[in-house]
Amino acid sequence: MFHKQYHHDKYALSQVKSKQKGSAIVVAIFVIVVMALLGAGLVKILSSSAESVAYEVIGTRAYAAAQTGAQWQLLEVFPHDTNVKTACKSNITAPDFSNVEGLTSCQATVTCNDDGVFDGTTYYVITSVGQCSIGGVVTSRTVQIEARSL
What we know:
The protein is of the alpha+beta class. The chain contains two helices and three strands. The N and C termini lie far apart (117 Å).
């Protein structure tokens, strides 16, 4: 009787094994697909993060160019070495960034407007737009300064 029971268990075990054939391959493929999707998502996150940092750096450079242009024009309107007050010039020479490391691909466009004279004080509005172009990416920042003569 023991032999019959053993033969029956062996037969049942072989049926279970035959039903499970290929299930390990399905699980392995599922795990590989899930890991590939996770890897692709991680690569996308890292690349978008690097792109954000690049835009931030270019934006900071454009802001520096705009700030430099505004200060350049302030020095033209209010020279350090004299007490002579000057007005906004119609032909503004923009600063040259060709020798400034980090700003070689940037430019500043500056405008200066006399905003009027009130009680003997002249008011000025200086607007500077800094623009940087690196690798096909163009970013610009604007700085506006309101100044008055003393």
